[in-house]
Hints:
By secondary structure, the protein is α+β, with helices and mostly antiparallel strands. The protein has one domain: CATH 3.30.860.10. Helices cover 22% and strands 13% of the residues. The protein contains two helices and three strands. A three-stranded mixed beta sheet has the order 1-2-3, covered by helices on one side. The longest helix has 14 residues, at 85-98. The protein starts with 12 loop residues before the first helix and ends in a 6-residue tail after the last helix.
Amino acid sequence: xxxxxxxxxxxxEKLLKKVSAxxxxxxxxxxxxxxxxxxxxxxxGFNFGVHNGKEHIPILVTEDMVGHKLGEFSPTTxxxxxxxxxxxxxxxxxxxxxIPGSDK
Length: 104
């Protein structure tokens, strides 16, 4: 746990108000920018839109996520690919298998 035990876990107050205002099982997405907020048991079953710097990534909170931070489930960087000769060969092989019937 990154915070001391006497301070307790960090949960955004605005986020808790939004969660308490909705009914359990409601499919409305709760938009938030609080990536550092820790997921509590009261948040299980709700849909959150966690901001990654560009857009809100929809996340359905399950019991396994309790204790983790919201930002862990919304990646901020997009993985391109690794470079090199092996990757180039693999890409050309994938293209050939994708389009077997086109001879243009």
